[in-house]
Amino acid sequence: MYQYDVTIVGGGLVGGSLACALANTGLRVALIEAVSQQSRARPSYDERVIALSLGSQRIFEAIGVWPEMAPEAEPILKVRVSDRGHCAFTRLDHAEEGVEALGYVIPARAMGAAIQTALKYAGNLEIFCPAQLLTHRVGADGVELNLLADGESVSLRTRLLVAADGGQSGIRAGLDLQVREHAYGQDAIITTVTPDRPLRGVAFERFTDTGPLAMLPMTAGRYSVVWTCRDSETADLLMLSDQDFLDRLQVRFGFRLGRLGQVASRRAYPLKFVLTRDSVQDRLVMIGNSAHTLHPVAGQGFNLGLRDVAGLAEVLADCAAAGDDPGATETLAGYRRWRGRDQMATAGMTDALARLFVPDWTPLIMARAAGMLAVDLIPPARHLLARRFMGLGGRQPRLACGLSLDGGRS
């Protein structure tokens, strides 16, 4: 039977990042991934992108994968937030915060490729791929796992099991946990456009009566579109011709970037809220979408998951240095208190924003306008909002400060 200190189920961006972060801790790590790794995909006009906060970029830099990602990252220098049809706005600027960028927009493909490259050089890591977790049984001093790997049955034993298997987590589904969950009755339509007057580094979040519309700057003057619509409208929007869709989007967004053109294929994703009440169980931790799935407003979902990675990696690195058990209750207690606060606060904030900016009720509209203008006009309030957007609010893991897990500058 294979023996490990930490076993990660899910080798996507979150699970793979954790494996990279643990590379130099001395812990024996196993990574279980169901989908066989393919050769690197080629760049495409309409590829999926992720908005990284500054804190997330620092995490990637600290674990050594940012240099490979950086050439394809577009910096977010300014953010413009507005409420469609109403005189309300808030502006954030990297110069006011004294940082190189508030965040970055980067293809998921580039992130995955950099992580996979780093994993090849992790001497403490064994990867089971393609492999499926069939069962796991938690005992007093470890977890026994049964896998189906390349058609063969494999047994593992680990001191800590980490679930990073996504929003449809099979591990979470097999546990009797309290989970807050609700659908928004909305879909996110994702596509790419090229405006004729792009503004380098300027991101837009425009609240509308069907939900937020985000325009994220990409390389080569492109913009990634995240259009939240009522689920009853999705089919009609997807069936529109390219020009009709662009016309509808132009009316929705306006002409801040000039005329929009060259729309890519469109994909729709249903939006829901999922928050596990306690993502830490006996010898088990859930991170990323396995623990929380958020509305895309403000782009907090993946960044919250990456802070899970940084926090857990720090706890486990300190544990390894002290020679302690990584799955022991006392080891995980600090992580539970630390990450629980951030998970609850971020989930609550995004859920409130998703609900607050949809109702077309005059007193609420006036309150929203007053709040947005107050943030724009009061520097301390604007600074707090920017810190939250950059993922720098509250207690920061060492990795999010650009420090290696042994405390030195990376």
UniProtKB/TrEMBL annotation:
Q: Which PROSITE patterns match?
A: UBIH (PS01304)
Task: Specify the pathway.
Answer: Cofactor biosynthesis; ubiquinone biosynthesis
InterPro entries from the UniProt entry? FAD-bd, FAD/NAD-bd_sf, Ubi_Hdrlase_CS, UbiH, UbiH/COQ6, UbiH/COQ6_monooxygenase
Q: Which residues form a coiled coil?
A: none
Q: Which Pfam families match?
A: FAD_binding_3 (PF01494)
Q: Which UniProt keywords apply?
A: FAD, Flavoprotein, Monooxygenase, Oxidoreductase
GO process annotations (BP): ubiquinone biosynthetic process
What Gene3D superfamilies does this protein's entry cite?
Answer: FAD/NAD(P)-binding domain
| Origin superkingdom | Bacteria
Q: List the cofactors.
A: FAD
Is Calcium given among the entry's keywords? no
Gene Ontology terms for molecular function = 2-octaprenyl-6-methoxyphenol hydroxylase activity; FAD binding
FAD-binding domain: from which residue to which, for each copy? Answer: 4-319
Q: Which family does it belong to?
A: Belongs to the UbiH/COQ6 family.
Name of the protein in its database record: 2-polyprenyl-6-methoxyphenol 4-hydroxylase
The organism is Thiorhodococcus drewsii AZ1
